[in-house]
Amino acid sequence: MATERTLSIIKPDATKRNLTGAINKKFEDAGLRIVAQKRIRLTEEQAGRFYDVHRERPFFGELTEFMASGPVVVQVLEGEGAIAKNREVMGATNPSDAAEGTIRAEFAESVGENSVHGSDAPETAKEEIAFFFSGLEIVG
Ligand code: DAT
Ligand code: MG
């Protein structure tokens, strides 16, 4: 498997509860390297552009309002098979379905406030990394 990069977001429910370090430890323990990271505050418009694929879903308004409700930590994770590995460490979207030991099983509050985002495929990873970072900000 090749070295990959994926876009991760530590969401407002997690930054609010001071879980950035605990979540980063899960990534690092799984062999993922944090090669870029910044704490930012999204507007609802920016959150809507990021989650554009979900614009027609019934939860879109709730999702963008939540993502703009507090600071987020956006980051690029690098490693062997990083996209799938990150999804594994995150756990299922709904924390009640997430496997034991995953970030969402341990920390998520609900299906909406589920602590982390991770890209789901190579093409989306590339687009999502470019949404937040310039090449100069990523140091492998
Ligand atoms: P994931 O974040 O696991 O990739 P997704 O892409 O299907 O999940 O959805 C993006 C986010 O939208 C998800 O992390 C939380 C929110 N969401 C998804 N399904 C939802 C639902 N049924 N109710 C409320 N929010 C939901
Ligand atoms: Mg998704």
TrEMBL record:
UniProt main location, coarse: cytoplasm
Annotated localization: Cytoplasm
Amino acids binding ATP: K11, F59, R87, T93, R104, N114
Record's GO cellular component terms: cytoplasm
EC class: transferase
Family: Belongs to the NDK family.
Reported function: Major role in the synthesis of nucleoside triphosphates other than ATP. The ATP gamma phosphate is transferred to the NDP beta phosphate via a ping-pong mechanism, using a phosphorylated active-site intermediate.
Record text on subunit structure and interactions: Homotetramer.
Name of the protein in its database record: Nucleoside diphosphate kinase
Organism, scientific name: Hasllibacter halocynthiae
Gene that this polypeptide is encoded by: ndk
